[in-house]
Every structure is written in structure tokens, then in C-alpha cells.
Amino acid sequence: MNSEPVLEAINQQEWIEPVADGLGSAVQGAYKAGGSAGQKVKNFMHGTWLGHQLHPVITDVPIGSWTTAFVLDVIEAATGRKEYGKGADVAVGLGILGALASAAAGLTDWSDTDGRARKVGVVHGLLNITATALYIASWFMRKSGKRGSGRTLAWLGYAISGSAAYLGGALVYTEKIGVDHAPREEMPDNFIPVLPDADLPEGKLVRAAAGEVKILLVRRGENIYALSETCSHLGGPLAEGKLEGDSVVCPWHGSRFTLQDGSVLDGPATHPQPCLEARVRGGYIEVRVNKE
User: Fold this and answer.
1) Quick check: 221 pLDDT over 80?
2) Order of strands across the sheet with 264-266?
3) What is the pTM of this model?
4) 179-206 CB burial, b ≥16 within 10 A, e <16
5) Which of 120, 52, 141, 128 is nearest to 95 (CA)?
6) SS3 for 197-236, per residue?
């Protein structure tokens, strides 16, 4: 199934934009209000410590739990054996807890998106909220002895969570959210000149090019640092960002990388920046892939 018509239909919905703007500002504001502690929590929620996003890891919990509950509910309904129903109840509850944790991580990632992906993310989130609410209602129905109604609500929630998962896949594979946007394969294996040495002042972010690949150059004393200039998060231009000590901050969403090795200091990026080796020869700065 081609997801493009679905994504474009969502993109045409004007009501989503003010919802996205308000919610996104609230999420970002809450993290900023926490200062350095808030940034640490935000980094954790993004998954900077994992090397990829945390959200897809947690989504396995509700999906797996609710799939288990679906199977056990079907067996209970077909056989009348209550032990299967007890197992389904536990799986529903575990799925609810996983869904809440997944929502927190997903909301954090979503707040640093733009354009069509931002709108699709709102619908993805609303579907997941609806599915979780149905499972919560199902859990209470089960505990009150209304197992038939509880199963029906759970099955409806399972169908809606499947629709949400479809949009989640489209966000990754079509909108490229959560993937590494920095070029890696195109980096030069051998030293090539990219900029006259005289054109790189102290403490300035300067864009150069190694063939088709944009390079960020920074001079700090006797050292010249070279990174991929395309931010790994969503492709932001790092040369238009700012220096913070020995790190560079992306102008689009605030990801922060070390100059020394490109590692992530602050999200939303989870992938490090490709780092290059730089030297000066014949009045030109030359770069190649760091082979250390």
C-alpha cells in the first residue's frame, strides 16, 4: 500500500497545525524550564545514550503485550477457560504501562520535527491515545466482571493501534524521522583540498566542500576540526549554528556535537556526526575520513 496519499491527506488538514504548535511549544517549554536537568531528561527520552531513538524500543512493549492479550482473549472466548483471561488481563495492563512510557519518548522526539512529519505525528499520537484509552476502559471492564465488553474494547483498541503503527512506519521510512541524515559513504578516503588555509579564521564555523559533501571546518588554536556539515538529526546546516566551547549546536533543533569526534552531547540527534581528519598542505586545508 502506497502511504503517500494518506500522508498528504493528513498534511492538508489545517486544524492540525495549531494543535501541533501549541503542544510542541508546551513540550519544549517544559524541558527548557528544567534547565540542565531538563536537558538531561530530554536526552534520555531521545535515546542519545543508546545511539538511536528510545521510542521504537519501548513501542515493542505495548504492541507485544496487546498482541498476546488478543490471542489469549480469543482462546478464552472460544474455550471458556478463565486462566487464559487472567493472562490477557496482565498483558493488557503491561501494555498500558508500556504505551504511557512510549508516549513520553515519542512526544519528545515529535516536538523536534517540522513540516508534514509534524502533522502526521499528531495523528499518530491521537490514534495511540485513543487505543490506550480503550485498553484502560477494557481493563476496568474486566475487573468489574464484564469480560465480554472488555474484550470488545481491547479488540477495537488493537485495530486502532495497528493504524497508529502504520503511520509510525511511514514517519520512519517515508518522512525519514529517526534515521541518520549525515552523509557517510561519500566521505573522501584520501586527503583532498577543501579550503585555503587563510580562509579559516579562529573560532568561526566555515562551510567547505569535499566533492559533493558539505564539510564544517573550525579552527581552535593549533587544531583544525572537520565534521560533516549536515546534521544527523534532520539535515540542518551546522555551519549556520553556533559554537559552545569545543562543540557545535545545530541551528534547527539544537542538537549539540563535540568538535573532536562528532559525538552527541545533546539531542534530539542520536547519531554522531561523521568526523574527518584535517591537515594543512601547500596553503590549503585537506580532509579525509578519520582512520584512527
Assistant:
1) yes
2) 242-244, 247-249, 256-258, 264-266
3) 0.89
4) ebebbeeebbeebebbbeeeebeeeebb
5) 128
6) HHHCCECCCEEEEECCEEEEEEEECCEEEEEECECCCCCC
Contacts by 15-18, CB closer than 8 A, 24 or more apart: 16/119, 16/122, 16/123, 17/119
The CATH homologous superfamily of the domain defined by 192-289: Rieske [2Fe-2S] iron-sulphur domain (2.102.10.10)
Question: What is the model's pLDDT at position 127?
Answer: 97
- Closest C-alpha among 112, 124, 36, 120 to residue 269: 112
**CA 73 distance to own-chain centroid:** 33
Cα separation, 120 vs 171, in Å, equals: 7
pLDDT confidence bin for 2, thresholds 50/70/90: confident
Pairwise CA distance, residues 70 & 158, whole Å: 8
Retrieve residue 187's grid coordinates. Answer: 566521505
- Of residues 227, 147, 218, the one with CA closest to residue 184: 227
Q: Dihedrals φ, ψ of 268, to 5°?
A: -80, -10
Q: Considering only CA atoms, which of 132, 121, 128, 111 is closest in space to residue 164?
A: 128
Q: How many CB atoms lie within 10 A of CB 130?
A: 16
Q: What are phi and psi of 231, to 5 degrees?
A: -60, 135
